[in-house]
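Worked example

This section walks through a single chain of length 99. The input is the sequence exactly as stored; nothing has been trimmed or padded.
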Amino acid sequence: MKSEETEILQLHTVIPYKDQIDKWLLSMERSMIDTLREKMNECLRIYEDKVDLSQEMERSEWIKKYNSQLVITIGQFLWTRECTRAITDKSNPRGALAD
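Given that input, the structure is written out below as tokens.
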């Protein structure tokens, strides 16, 4: 896949075009979804293992390593997760919502 910004994400499965365009498009869509799912899991795992916890990798290096779609999505996921933890943390009365 290639974005308008010229970022390239290599699909894991090559989908050769045959005769039926509708089947080809469905196969292409499945390949895109599978590739994005795998890459997002990898992107999250690397962030949690090497950037956030161990500091083996700088955040800027992580950002450059992955496509912007992945970085933005994982960044939003991490932000939402941390906000949810802060709001629901009963041990921190300033972070928890009043009952």
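What to look for: The radius of gyration is 19 Å.
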